[in-house]
Amino acid sequence: MSERIITSDACVHEGAEALAAKHPILREAFAATGPLPLRLKPAGFAQLLNAIVGQQVSVASANAIWGKLVAAGLTSEAPILALSEEELRAQGLSRQKAKYARALAAAAIDYEALAGLSSDEVIKMLTAVQGIGTWTAEIYAMFSLGRADVFAHGDLALQEAARALYGLAERPKEKQMREMAEAWSPWRSVAARILWAYYKQMKNREGIR
Questions:
Q1: Within a 10 A sphere around the Cβ of 116, how many other Cβ atoms?
Q2: CA-CA 20 to 30 A from 54: which of 126, 136, 154, 184?
């Protein structure tokens, strides 16, 4: 595995400068947003569970639910498996997410081994777990593994930022977003940071936790 790993603000800045030099629209967006957040997070079960919690809900709602899980000590495999789906629902998880949380805990993923896999292999392995969709796997690869060339193509905030920046008539769907992002390789995760920052400025709210 020889992919570039983002480890510091300097890495993000290097990627942003490289993108700005090649893509005038991203240069304008980067100039408007200023320094980009590093956003790196620890690897492991808790972060992937956190990503599941964040699926298809607002940032505020996800943070509130996650706070309840942390307070209850439900951020590792054994405590999750010790509870039924109904008991997990009492902590704020939907029926579906309670099922997904238990499936993730039962999968017994070797999180240390993921670091040695390619991003495509990581995404393939994670999406084999029930409830882990492509978006969740991409977010994990970007922020918990620091992969520099991963993009969350189905992310609505990224799509909306791209629509506004590129003057598109409507928000690009996942397939079109994937095609657009190809041009931003090998710094697609930095391009995502630029778009998220632009979305925050445009909407005055966070597009990603």
A1: 10
A2: 184
- Containing 111, the helix (H) or strand (E) segment is helix 111-114
Tokens representing residue 122 in the block: 């990581």
Q: Are 157 and 198 in contact (CB under 8 A)?
A: no
Look at residue 1 and tell me whether its pLDDT is greater than 60.
Answer: no
List, in sequence order, the alpha helices (H) in 34-150: 45-53, 59-71, 77-81, 85-89, 95-107, 111-114, 119-127, 134-143
CA distance 24 to 26: 5
Residue 142 contacts residue 135 (beta carbons within 8 Å): no
Asked if residue 198 lies in contact with residue 29, where contact means CB atoms within 8 angstroms, the answer is: yes
Give the model confidence (pLDDT) of 134-163 as tens digits: 988 999 999 999 999 999 999 999 999 999
Cis, bond preceding 24 (omega within 30 deg of 0): no
Say if residue 119 is exposed, middle or buried (CB neighbours under 10 Å; 0-12, 13-18, 19+): buried
Closest CA to 145 of 1, 27, 17: 1
Q: Which two tokens stand for residue 18?
A: 């490289």
Domains and CATH numbers, the chain: 9-39+149-203 (1.10.1670.40), 45-143 (1.10.340.30)
DSSP state of 205: S
Tokens coding 68: 């309840």
DSSP result, 11-59:
HHHHHHHHHHHH-HHHHHHHHHH-SPP------SHHHHHHHHHTTTS-H
